[in-house]
Amino acid sequence: MLNNPVLVNSSRFILLVLAQVLVFNHLNFFGTINPMVYVLFFFWYPVKENNATLMLTAFALGLVIDIFSDTMALHTLAAITLAYFRPFMMRFCFGINFDFQNFSFKNATVVQRMTFLFLLIILQNMVFFFLEILSFSHITLILKQILFTTLATFLFCSLLIVLFSKNQE
Amino acid sequence: MQRIINFILDNRNTFLYVLLFVIGLVFTIQSHTYHHSKYFNSSKWLSGSLYDTKADITDYFSLKSENKKLIKENERLKFLLYNQQSDSNFTSPSNMEFEVQSAKVIKNSFALARNYLTINAGEKSGIKQDMGVITSQGILGVVENTSNNFATVQSILNTKSSINAKIKHTDYFGSLKWNARDYRVVQLIDIPRSVPVMIGDTIVTGGMSSIFPENIPIGTIKTYNLNQSQSSYDIEVDLINDMANIRAVYIIKNKNREEILELEKLTIDAQ
Predict the structure, then answer these.
(1) Which residues form the Rod shape-determining protein MreC beta-barrel core domain (chain B) (predicted)?
(2) Least Cα separation, residue A23 to chain B (angstroms)
């Protein structure tokens, strides 16, 4: 049962949504910082899967989180952007290996994986906060939010990855 | 033709991305200009019930402080009641302009640029769009969307929010806005230069809108400056409410609101 990718991804979808809307949306570090941990869905998603499926799933994921957090469609826009740029980022992070048939996450180095995670998070945060405020009089505010939220998200995602990693020897 | 089809097939992911992005943008921009999205908001059954369940559990942790707040409020109300002259003209309930209904906040947010709260009272309790929401201490926001059992409230910590406010004991009105920088501070603009302004003065709601009754506390003046055109003040207001910690709220129903709106509409149409 644990090997069925559809089941695994569906339960991941639901658990990440619940974690985001019930816990992480209400952390409010220093008043305004809420990590956006649903980015892990894109980190954990199977490498070889069809990108159109991922994009539609991302749309649903973002929309559900948006409905819960009353953020119009900001999470949706961030999520589909992540889904679209994910293959490019993987090629950038894992190099030429990515195109080989036998490529898998397990034979990538920790640094490569962390770079990939960081790129995902920074893109997600940029899309979210630029579209949220949409006014350049607030540019310093946007940059501050992106910086701190990216750091917090990165920290929490790394912890969650370590916590839920399967290949412990 | 073949080449066009091939081109589309080769770039189908890009087309899909652009399509989804445009849909997302439409949702977002629509709610920028007008009311918050009617279909995608947390007053809906599923999100409302989930938040309600969560609030039922987490409420226990704040029972003590919440109790203290309510006792303080009772104390103040009793004080007002007992010190009222006995011959004061208490009108019968049917003549009173405002009705008050209590509810509980089941989801709060103050970290975004457009913040909304969700409360556990909806159309079944007579909640409608554009009713005012206050706490025991001061103003909180305006009802935006409703479902059967829940409603979302546009917080004053929302860049779209604009509320009529004045300096206590004067009759100079301005509008209350928020610049998304600090959840403890809001801005009062359009107070004319001629008004004597003092740091520490209390800001209350004005009676110019049919949403809030007059003289509900908002906050105190923190700093003030003349605006760019030197004609009016930009005032920073320290909020009385701790926006990070809100449980019990009251919804204010103005019985005359429909009549007022109808009149205003007639006046505008006549022009």
Answers:
(1) 105-253
(2) 10
